[in-house]
Write a structure and sequence with these properties.
Shape: globular
Number of strands: 0
Helix content: over 70%
Distance between the termini: 91 Å
Radius of gyration: 22 Å
Largest sheet: none
């Protein structure tokens, strides 16, 4: 008796909308940061929070060695970014990317509540200025890593010349964005921040 093979219909699973996924992770961790700040309580935020009139006033007239600050930021930012750039080519890339984005979002949510409790509207402006304009370059860099991580599996053959590889070009571009962000954070951001604080 001849056995018939049963053909199972091929079901194509929907592709992961990675932009929405990363945006959702950011919002979830941002909300968790807000919850954590509220759990700490108003009294502890006022007592131990760095965003109060005394500490902020010290920033206005503190002399900053921009070169040394840039080197310090370069070591800290590139250590995490370099690890993320290496892991996006492995199965652990998603964990690293979500962890980095989640930490930034959590910290931002916590700082917003801290600023609102300690300094009201002016504190919110200070938090926004503390991440501007470098946040644009950082967001572009990690967006590029996300594009590399969630790249399409079905692609045409890569070119023989390495410099014509679009993924290599994208990796170099995100590194340039990251370096530009560190430069802005080291040289431009302190000027903007001090300028606003002196006018308060």
């Amino acid at each position: 008796m001849r056995h018939r093979t049963i053909k199972v219909p091929h079901i194509q699973l929907p592709k992961l909308p990675w932009r929405g996924f990363l945006a959702g992770c950011f919002l979830i961790f941002f909300f968790l940061g807000i919850l954590a700040a509220n759990w700490v309580g108003r009294e502890k935020l006022l007592q131990y929070g760095m965003l109060n009139n005394y500490y902020v006033g010290q920033l206005a007239y503190t002399e900053l060695d921009s070169g040394a600050y840039f080197i310090y930021l370069l070591k800290r930012r590139m250590r995490v970014f370099g690890m993320s750039a290496l892991l996006v080519y492995t199965r652990f890339g998603i964990l690293m990317l979500v962890g980095v984005i989640g930490w930034y979002a959590f910290s931002l949510g916590y700082l917003f509540v801290n600023a609102l409790v300690c300094m009201k509207f002016q504190g919110m402006v200070i938090v926004l200025l503390s991440i501007f304009p470098q946040i644009i370059c950082y967001a572009a860099a990690y967006y590029g890593l996300g594009k590399i991580l969630f790249r399409k599996s079905a692609q045409t053959a890569l070119p023989k010349r390495a410099w014509q590889n679009p993924w290599l070009f994208l990796l170099v571009s995100v590194m340039m964005c990251m370096l530009a962000g560190i430069w802005l954070e080291g040289y431009v951001n302190p000027v903007l921040l001090r300028s606003y604080i002196r006018r308060m």
